[in-house]
Amino acid sequence: MERILREVQDGVLLLRLNRPDKLNAIDEQMLRELCTALDEARVDDGVRVVVLTGNERAFSAGADIDGFAQVTVEELATSRSDFPLWDTIRRFPKPLIAAVSGYVFGGGLELTLACDLVVASQTARFAAPEIRIGLIPGAGGTQLLARRFGKYRAMELVLTGREFSAEEAERWGLVNVVTTPEEYLTRALELARQIAQHSPAAVRAAKAAIVQGLEMPLDPALRFERELFLRVFTTPEAQEAIRSFLERRRAKQQSG
Ligand code: COA
User: Fold this and answer.
1) 4-196 and 200-255: same fold?
2) How far is the CA of 141 from the centre of ligand 1 (A)?
3) What separation in Å is there between the alpha carbon of 162 and the centre of ligand 1?
4) 227-237, pLDDT tens digit by residue?
5) Residue 80 pLDDT more than 80?
6) Which fold is adopted by the domain 4-196?
7) Is 181:121 a contact under the CB 8 Å cutoff?
């Protein structure tokens, strides 16, 4: 892998977009490497949470515009479609935390929208700028912005392509925490380590309940939550935690 750097510590996998000379513009190779890393992380019990980051100047300036010149619309729709790759990211079952700084544009914004928690440096500048080059977001931008922020904010951002700040993003609910430029990655890793201490089965169930539940009407979503609750109820982690509470002792840590 050259476009994605990987590092694992304390159950947290750090994935760093690594194309700094092109502001981490997302080309086919980067997207494929990212999906390979996530596919491996999905089945690796040593990975409980993933943090996705770029560098101080850019999380990512979006889809690789150079690549657009080298592909036909037929290829984009078929053999070279990146749609399944974006699905892999959106369907990743463990918590995905974005730690962003600098440009978070286009596909970079869509990557952030595919994450479950977002920690941003004060320097982060977000935009869905595709309209400025005669395009629209094609990897979830219109749908996820509209579902997260409502129709009017999504219209404003997608139709004007205007930049918005980390503070605005936090106010609108796209960002969990805004930090100084020195702290954003440390804060994201702290958050990841905190989540990594909890039962992996419960963490996955919680993510599935929230992410998939949001796509359902309330009644089936409540039933889905209950089904997941019953499933985690029988896990050794939950049973041990309940017993330890009753016996007034600390729960034994379970592995895996
Ligand atoms: N695709 C391909 N290359 C990109 C890119 C993208 N989306 N964004 C930046 N780059 C490349 C530039 O071509 C330049 O490469 P070069 O040094 O070989 O010429 C390098 O990254 C640095 O970018 P540059 O434009 O010089 O930096 P800047 O600080 O002046 O401007 C941006 C930064 C993000 C405002 C500007 O690069 C930009 O508008 N990028 C496109 C953003 C976009 O439209 N994304 C959505 C695509 S659908």
Assistant:
1) no
2) 19
3) 16
4) 999 999 999 99
5) yes
6) 2-enoyl-CoA Hydratase; Chain A, domain 1 (3.90.226)
7) yes
Nearest ligand 1 atom to alpha carbon 57: 29
Tell me, what's the pLDDT at 1? 85
Q: What is the CATH number of domain 200-255?
A: 1.10.12.10
**Residues 206-253: tens digit of each pLDDT:** 999 999 999 999 999 999 999 999 999 999 999 999 999 999 988 776
Q: Residue 234 forms beta bridges with which residues?
A: none
Spatial contact of 65 and 106, defined as CB atoms under 8 Å apart: no
Tell me the C-alpha distance between 123 and 18, whole Å: 19
Rounded distance, CA 119 to CA 117, Å?
A: 7
Q: What is the pTM of this model?
A: 0.95
Element (H, E) at 184: helix 184-196
Nearest residue (by CA) to ligand 1, atom 8, is 61
